[in-house]
């Protein structure tokens, strides 16, 4: 359903919102963001034992719950709201998505149940130092070695790359773009300092690392493009969750903060700013919801919807964050205030998977063939 | 009654059977609509006593589908008459309902809205048109403006001040005024885009009989808000302009004529909305699509337009499912305004020097120039963007109301414009 949620979906969202508010108060976000890993196994295991979140979109045949993208995107939105420090996006969206799209039947049966239960944390490594978000920038090379493969090269900006157990890697063989799985411990890896401390990034070096081919040699182009579409939609939903939380917090603050003898919410400049913020966030939410439903409906032009959703969310989230700092004034620029946590996620998410400019261009290319 | 009554399938079967037995394209338009109005299928959400069936909003699309299937014409729904009907239904006396509702539904009567004045635009409640009870009738003096179709209207929805000692909002009353009388004079108002779609209405000792006040004396502001609420609801940009059918029977011809007359004042409204539909075809046609800067601007516009459309659809879906209106329901008008301005910018950018010209020799046969000169209306008409933002902030976000300098004291002591 592109324009509304079912009663079941709304009930799911409501219970999840209550659960995550309790599990991930800002104090907990601050504690985890100071760790090098950025998340903890114990908390992740509890999240999956109690709510089964990593399993939501994985088919029942592979140990999942068999729900759709709309449900997965509800999870993303609610996690984005509380800035949950957990490897959900890396593992349940990126890694699971790649395995579902590219893996053989045997590989899905072998790899997905672990991801679904949360026992195994996966991620996808595709970007390199060039910073290109598409597959064209891939230089990591793979060569056959007996029954397996060996990978040489590096990967950058890998989400949770220094903590993942299972890394799906995009590389090149003689046959072309291919996906591989490697054991995280076998890779030389280090965390890099990111602008957003609530979602950790890593740089990975591959020097003859043993790997297993995921799916078909040279057949990764289409599955990879599809995973990027799914990821953009998932991230857009996470972003609108964060944007709405920021908007609500800024509104609550404006209603409480007194200056010139009255609450600042009484000033028309504040009212108009808040009205614009509401509009921007609601418009971006509409696109994020639409794109999730378009994935479930199997729409042929889902990549266009995904790019619209990512472009809208990128601008709305960052703009909301800028407004939120401004509304808080001086206190909004301090470390103790919570706004900067979401500001940093907004900035990082704007860039992650390509910014609004890139996604507008992708949308134009898809809408008008043969251009530029 | 069958078990299916009230269910979607039950309603569908019922309306289909009724149409099979009653729809007849050989009837005259008024004759058919009279029959339709009495059946309740024309306004199914209305009370049973007044031409309705008390059905939930969710059934309306189902019923409309059956009408489309049968090629059956609905009740008259274009223009201010719909707002008049909603207002009379909510606040009118039985006598007023008897007198007006049926003729609204049949399309026999045309209505206009007499709210705005030269000295009160956004501040509608600051109206200074005066209604005084003299002898046994109301006598009205003043000037109204931006009145669509006033020259054709039989009846007007009139907001006038009846008490100058009461505070602003409590000194107003709401009337139904006969437009075809010597005290009412109508003249066209020319706009910056060259069209003259609105009128100025001069009221000079115009008469309103006592039974034609809507609700009570002093309650005019409440009634006005009902009208305005229904007006805003229609401003989400989703509603397509009615086209009519090109079938040969006389009744379709009558409907086409009705639509043509009613829509005449609105014929530049697509330009006012920015003609987003023209942007991509013109980008391709002009070759501007190959300019990376233009591509970005077109992309920005299309992303925004699509998001606005989907937001309006979310609001509509919630309404159809009978859910309480969420914040998305209040944003349609403001979003449409932002989209229109962005569209005007992109049209200018793609047209280049050609944007200097207007008229038949200009870009897209003059449509681009018409867009550029019509878009400024979208952020003003029906509530300016600034007022919309106030409404969103106050009613949706619960922020403090604007401080009022003028609502506590008698209206006669409130500073007012000296020149209209």
Q: Could you describe the 3D structure shown?
A:
- The complex is a heterodimer of chains A (372) and B (420).
- Chain A has 372 residues and is an alpha+beta fold.
- Chain A folds into three domains: 111 residues, Butyryl-Coa Dehydrogenase, subunit A, domain 1; 99 residues, Butyryl-CoA Dehydrogenase, subunit A, domain 2 (Beta Barrel); 146 residues, Butyryl-CoA Dehydrogenase, subunit A, domain 3 (Up-down Bundle), CATH 1.20.140.
- The mean pLDDT of chain A is 97.
- Among the domains of chain B are: 112 residues, Beta Barrel (Butyryl-CoA Dehydrogenase, subunit A, domain 2), CATH 2.40.110.10; 114 residues.
- Helices cover 40% and strands 13% of the residues of chain B.
- Chain B has 13 helices and eight strands.
- In chain B, helix 2 crosses helix 5, helix 4 crosses helix 6 and helix 9 packs parallel to helix 11.
- Classes of the chains: A alpha+beta (372), B alpha+beta (420).
- Chains A and B meet through helix 7, strand 9, helix 8, helix 9 and helix 11 of A and helix 9, helix 10, helix 11 and helix 13 of B.
The count of β-strands of chain B is: 8
Question: What share of residues of chain B is helical?
Answer: 40-55%
Roughly what percent helix of chain A?
Answer: 40-55%
* Gross CATH architecture of the largest domain in chain A: Up-down Bundle
Query: Termini separation of chain A (Å)?
Result: 34 Å
